[in-house]
Amino acid sequence: MEQNSSNKLLESDMASAAKAIDEFTGKDTEDISLWIKEFEMISLATGLDEQQQARLFVTKLRGVA
């Protein structure tokens, strides 16, 4: 039972991070350094591990990014 609640918590954290992190498109008006810093801060705040961060990172890239 405890494992099930842990899985739900992880899914919730991943969903929270996904909602909080903007997409990066690579446009000239975007700053990749700032975007990465924000990504790292939100990932840390929501408790994502490295594997979760990697999966989320690629889902946030769009266009030429």
From TrEMBL:
Protein name, entry field: Uncharacterized protein
Annotated source species: Pseudoloma neurophilia
